[in-house]
Design brief:
The protein has 317 residues and is an alpha+beta fold. It has two domains: 131 residues, MutM-like, N-terminal (N-terminal domain of MutM-like DNA repair proteins), CATH 3.20.190; 136 residues, Helicase, Ruva Protein, domain 3 (Orthogonal Bundle). The protein has a four-stranded antiparallel beta sheet, covered by helices on one side. The protein has a four-stranded antiparallel beta sheet with strand order 2-3-4-8, covered by helices on one side. Strand 3 and strand 4 form a beta hairpin. Helix 2 runs parallel beside helix 8 and helix 5 packs across helix 8. The radius of gyration is 20 Å and the shape is globular. The chain starts with 15 loop residues before the first helix and ends in a 5-residue tail after the last strand. The N terminus is likely disordered.
Amino acid sequence: MRSGGAARVPPSVLPSAARHKQRALAWKTSTIHLLMRRSPLMAELPEIEIARRDLDKEITGRRVKTVDVPGTKKALPAMRSKQQFADLLEGKKILSVSRDGTLLLFDLGPDEVMVAHFGATGSLRRATSRTPQDPDTKVVLTFTKGGQLRLLDSGAEATLRVIAKNRYHKVFPDQVDLGFDPVDMPMPWTDFAFMLRGRSDTIRDLLLDATFVVGFGPMYSDEVLHAARLSHARVASELNTQEVRRLYRAIVETVHNSIKYRGSGTSGHLDIFGKSGGFDPYLEVFGRAGERCRNGRGDVLTTVIRGVTHHYCDYQV
């Protein structure tokens, strides 16, 4: 927690109004922590929110019968052994599934929570005991009724942790200063304009800064800038009123439209049922270098910024 900042409590503990008030304080008092090295493959806010909604419907109320860890213990940080993790989960009931930024929180009762972090290439998958096990399976939770939940990761970054709720921000200190959440924390565009005042960052840097807006990586930041018709190099504090409103609208509409179509599969990301999202036909620029923009106004160009490819059109100014 930052010096002088207000301590945040996991969303599964806070009532909705208190959570929004605390997040508002966090983004007003936070300083810059740019996350410019995000992988283009990582799941971004829409895909993680879709997983949360699906999981909340699918496994809330289900009790964990057994835990198997076919992968390495690296997926279970801070655990002395795989058995220790199993002991913490077996017999516990999932009461709800919530989201804090890009982390998924599985409420296990008054004192404990399981936290899922996807990393760059992780995902959760529903399955039955008869479903062939993917080689990338790291952890398998089998419920007393209703099949299994599996953690998959082709890399080695996805993790599951069972922790005491009162230790949440000690284990995940970056969650204290999360910024604006377009799904979970709607706000008037005038409040968004206030966030931009005095910011010398470029708007692309801000979109990739989790203390400004949560869950954006290269794909959705490119799409938002295109929808707002703004250059990545524009300084946030220099936007006029019309441009601020376009940027705010682009953030909100891009996220909600992607969720409506169940996210993008461009990066190879699949939902908890193993299906690809339907938002790809609506991507205007990301992954379409050299092609005609779907609105027909120009070709998709690219430039490399801090080692990450940025997609844009020449009419973004």
